[in-house]
Design brief:
alpha+beta, rod-shaped
């Protein structure tokens, strides 16, 4: 006469649930990392677009290009279109990027636009992008 096994399929089910739970936690971790990196990439794209926007503004007002100089983190000085462009751009940086700030350097016929922001991923580093263009 054969003995009946008791509790074996329950034990197998519990082990299967444990393995499935560990797998789902791994997937959740990957999803979280993906969201963090996507947000970081989004901010970098925003910074690049805003730097390009300022380069376009300076090129469009070539005659007053020297008035666009701005220290990183500074505020607009002077009057007229360059000051208006700087004010709008600095406000846009502050609104779109975490701790966003920018600067503009004009040397000879070369314009350099720098955008800085705080990377709110795991490291909290200060990120920077710089675009350089000829007038």
């Amino acid at each position: 006469m054969k003995k009946l096994q008791k509790g074996v399929s329950l034990l197998e089910s519990l082990i299967a649930m444990l393995v499935l739970s560990i797998g789902l936690l791994g997937v959740l971790g990957l999803q979280t990392k993906s969201l963090v990196h996507n947000r970081s990439a989004y901010f970098e794209t925003q910074a690049s677009n805003m730097a390009q926007d300022m380069l376009d503004r300076v090129r469009a007002n070539h005659a007053q290009a020297s008035a666009y100089g701005l220290a990183v983190g500074g505020s607009a000085t002077g009057s007229g279109l360059p000051s208006n462009d700087q004010t709008e751009w600095v406000a846009d940086l502050a609104n779109a990027l975490p701790d966003g700030e920018g600067g503009i350097t004009i040397a000879n016929s070369q314009v350099s636009v720098t955008v800085r922001w705080k990377d709110i991923s795991e490291t909290n580093d200060i990120r920077q992008i710089q675009l350089v263009s000829e007038l």
